[in-house]
Write a structure and sequence with these properties.
Blueprint (H helix, E strand, L loop, with lengths): L2 E3 L4 H9 L2 E6 L9 E6 L4 E5 L2 E7 L5 H8 L2 E7 L7 E12 L5 H5 L10 E15 L15 H21 L12
Antiparallel strand pairs: 1-8, 2-3, 2-6, 4-5, 5-8, 6-7, 7-8
Length: about 180
């Protein structure tokens, strides 16, 4: 039942941006390095820029694995699952980069989003998609989406801009494997 697509077409694009959660996986080059898989809430934070480019808002987190792995080797996969409706899994494999909030090109990519001025936004992850595929998703459970948690925004707002900068300096400098994160 799985299919490989030439690009992210209009139907896939609409389906992808409608999913309330997606997963991001990256890995370092080193065989003993830690593979990372992170769930991401999609509060209108995923954009299909074109048929071969996807971007998402990256919130401040307790780790910096995705950014560190992308800096080291660029490999990334985004996975979207249907938890309601017909079963489906879509994977977007490609090469990614992180555009940090203070980078000159941030404003160019930020125009695709609303909410980039939120305190917790750390970067935009841009993926040059090399492979688009879907699979059946028969093993994915049916689940009801209740709502997105407000906790990330509440935490970021309590910390404020200075507190977020201090937190990133403390928690986002290096990955768990010692790879460079955010300077």
């Amino acid at each position: 039942m799985g299919k490989v697509f030439e690009e992210i077409n209009a139907d896939l694009s609409a389906w992808i941006v409608a999913q309330p959660i997606f997963f991001v996986a990256t890995a370092p080059i080193a065989a003993q390095g830690s593979i990372n898989c992170s769930p991401k809430g999609n509060r209108d934070e995923v954009r299909i820029v074109n048929g071969h480019t996807v971007a998402y808002l990256d919130q401040t987190g307790s780790g910096v694995e995705t950014i560190a792995h992308l800096r080291e080797n660029g490999r990334i996969v985004l996975m979207f699952c249907a938890f309601t409706g017909p079963p489906r899994i879509v994977r977007l494999h490609g090469r990614g980069r992180s555009i940090l909030r203070d980078a000159p090109e941030f404003e160019d990519i930020a125009q695709h989003f609303s909410g980039t001025d939120a305190i917790g936004v750390r970067s935009v992850i841009v993926v040059d998609v090399e492979r688009v595929s879907d699979s059946c998703g028969y093993g994915v459970p049916l689940m009801q989406f209740e709502s997105h948690r407000p906790t990330m925004d509440q935490w970021s707002n309590r910390k404020g801009p200075d507190g977020i900068r201090e937190y990133r300096a403390m928690k986002n400098r290096v990955s768990i494997d010692g790879l460079d994160g955010i300077d």
